[in-house]
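Changelog excerpt: complex records now keep ligands as SMILES alongside chain sequences, and the structure block spans every component. Example after the change:
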Amino acid sequence: MVQKGQFITFEGPEGAGKTTVIQEIYHRLKEDGRNVLLTREPGGIRIAEKIRTIILDNDHQEMDARTEALLYAAARRQHLAEKVIPALHEGYTVLCDRFVDSSLAYQGYARGLGIDEVWAINAFAIDGVMPDLTVFFDIDPEVGLARIAKNDQREENRLDNESLHFHRNVYEGYQELIRRYPDRIQLTDASLPKELVTENVWKIIGAQFI
Ligand SMILES: Nc1ncnc2c1ncn2[C@@H]1O[C@H](COP(=O)(O)OP(=O)(O)OP(=O)(O)O)[C@@H](O)[C@H]1O
Ligand SMILES: Cc1cn([C@H]2C[C@H](O)[C@@H](COP(=O)(O)O)O2)c(=O)[nH]c1=O
């Protein structure tokens, strides 16, 4: 695949501030005259948003861990094929709120399916498309969960409602990924005020692409 644009993904525990900061980064890149696509996983397009609803529905407590991993991978494939890959071909900078590292940390590590096993199904789904840069929003999972609990606009979903033990394991999973991919994954301190986190993320992106 000839990829002309840049693919930047954002990762971290619940409530880390990714969505908030990415929106500001999107506006700054646009002001800079770039073609930018802001999207998210799971979701971003019609079919993947439907899969998102199935995965995150609080009513679906019986969902099997492998089913969950496969659904995330299916949503990812459709999103890549329909939206991300065409945008990269056209030279867009693609900002994606979560990508394959979420599957590796949540399903691979925290659900206990195994990082390598979850990687295997995702390798099929992503077919070689990997981020040029991943920004990890580093925050104590308890602090992130407290932020979303305070936000009245947000309905907590099936994954949000997992135990603190699960969310701590997600964080541990990310630490393992940071050890495995030190060149791709850059860390930012997400416990700082929003404005500072935005400045730091802007610097990380600027150092590589602007
Ligand atoms: N740096 C910050 N300091 C304090 N509160 C913040 C900060 N950044 C975001 N918030 C608030 O925390 C909540 C979660 O932020 P946001 O939705 O951006 O996180 P997120 O990483 O996208 O979460 P999730 O992945 O769980 O959807 C929101 O209410 C937001 O206003
Ligand atoms: C892509 C992806 C996501 N998850 C989890 C992470 C969150 O709990 C939800 C998505 O909700 P958000 O508010 O949009 O962050 O799904 C996952 O477990 N595995 C994945 O691959």
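Residues 65-89 form the longest helix (25 residues). The helical segments are 18-31, 46-56, 65-89, 100-110, 115-126, 141-150, 164-180, 194-209.
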